[in-house]
Amino acid sequence: DTGETMRMGSFRVSEVVPITFVALLSHHSAVAAGLVPRFVGFAYSAVNSSAQHNCLQMSTVSADPYTGKMTKKGWVGPDVKNATAILLNTSMAMPVGRRAIRALNLYANGSKHPDDNILPPTANCTGKWPATSQFSGVWWEHGAAEVAVLHEVVLASYKAAGGELDFWVVDDETSSEMHSWWIAKGPDDECGKAKYDAIQNDKRFPAFLALLQQLGFGSPDMTKPHWLFEYMTCCGGDLNLDHYRAWATAATYYFAHWVRVGQAAPVTKYFPNASFSEYGLAVPGWKQNCAPTTTGFMDGNVSMPSSGVTPDQSAAPIPSHVQSPALYMDVSDALAATLKTDFGVKKYPNTPFNAFRQAVNKLRSGILGARQTKTTIEMIPYMAYKSYANSRTNNSIDYQEVILHGGLAGVDRFLMWNTHAKGDDNPVVSRSLDELEEVVGSAQHDGQRVWANPSLANWTTGYVLTVAVINNTCLWRFTPDLSFLNTTSPAVFVMPQSGGGLRLSGMLSQTGTIESIFFPNATVLRPTDKISSTGGLWISQAAKLVSAPCVVFPR
């Protein structure tokens, strides 16, 4: 968004500066010309041969070969030379510029170092996990340092052997150990009380409290001996109350800090140009553009804090310059409840289209939040495999629509959680990336996209629109809710106008209203290759011929 935002009808559009434009190039033409695809999926597991041109299985590295391990036959010592040779062989077989390594467990025990334990011996925390006698609060100093030492061994040996690295991927989900729902189960949890007391009485707590208060933590009575425990277990455990949202966001800042210290910093030391991704960490949309999770949690619905109170002196709660939210489309009834209380949406059924819209808004929320930090942050989201049982889009073309809207909004790389993929799961991602390659353009032939409707998609309309400007062309993706019709083709809404332009009419909103929109000087753009989804339309609009770039009008 490079200029002033204006309002045309009910749609936000933006003035943008012209950028270099190149004619559309089909996937097959790009491959024939020897071009590296711009849009790429990085997969956990093997992908079908038909998808390997743009979906790449990442190389993996685990701790055991570098630290040694105990087996049934006894202790097996480390073998750094052999482990490095294996890692080098798999990673360097990947295309230049696409060499990606996924760290499996190099971060293990980063949250559980005995020297970080803040619980007193008297704490009633000797039960089953997580009510153990080890609790590090939000300060993982020694654990992160130990993790960094292991990363030094792995990365130094790999670099010395001639290894190259473009992308380092981590799926470290231990952040939950800092969150309120993990620390205490409720007001009767004696172990939880000991944990909160230990945090409250730690000499480092004032700095954490200062961050909490900037995030809207409130003003509890701090004169009580167990005030933090009582405050964090009150009110029936509604996680969308302000002080729970503040705690979740502050904990994310601290978790991101320790990930940076133990993992991202060593990667940057040896490979300064490599990208670093941590699963699930993303910039929230803050008060202006927060989107709830699929479970209805609004942890990012807080005011952005000043960088001076965060542990990394950064406004973005991520360990590097990449954010990677999980887009799994597993929406629940709790999402509808949050949309009703926070957004005034009277109903939000758990349909494939509504799951798709939530994913698009979660992605947009991260991009908009990053803009507010005034920091360059790449969006590389996680996508679950299509047949994922908990996903509402596992039998819907709306799955592909998430990828297409993401690519138009600025995403080049997608992380593919495809561990249990089957059948067409991998090829459908590949075909979606092929479609983006043709319509949006390949890396060597395309200028920069400018996402030109920078706001969350309306939660109640019967369609989602995303638009990017490429030189003097507005490229739209229109995806309607087709669930109320006996068709899978959005073409039923298209009504060409005799005077020019394009009208889409007959979409049904969440509130039961029949909707219609008009695109001046626009036509439907049809890719030459086989399309990945019949759930939406590409619309090309000449920006120079309208009063402002990328305009649509309700009709």
Task: Give structural attributes.
alpha/beta; 555 residues; 14 helices; five-stranded antiparallel sheet
**How many helical elements?**
14
Note the main sheet: 5 strands, parallel
In percent terms, what proportion of residues is strand?
15-25%
Distance between the termini: 26 Å
Major sheet: arrangement of strands:
4-3-15-14-12
Residue-averaged pLDDT, rounded? 88
The number of strands is 24
Low-confidence stretches: 1-34
Structural class: alpha/beta
The best one-word shape is globular
Helix content: 25-40%
Rg over CA atoms: 25 Å
In short:
The protein has 555 residues and is of the alpha/beta class. The protein is 30% helix and 17% strand. Strand 20 and strand 21 form a beta hairpin.
Please explain how this structure is put together:
By secondary structure, this protein is an alpha/beta fold. It contains 14 helices and 24 strands. The strands form 7 sheets. The chain has a 5-stranded parallel beta sheet. It has a 5-stranded antiparallel beta sheet with strand order 16-17-18-23-22. Strand 17 and strand 18 (473-480) form a beta hairpin. Helix 12 packs parallel to helix 13. The longest helix has 29 residues, at 242-270. It is globular, with a radius of gyration of 25 Å. Residues 1-34 have low confidence and may be disordered.
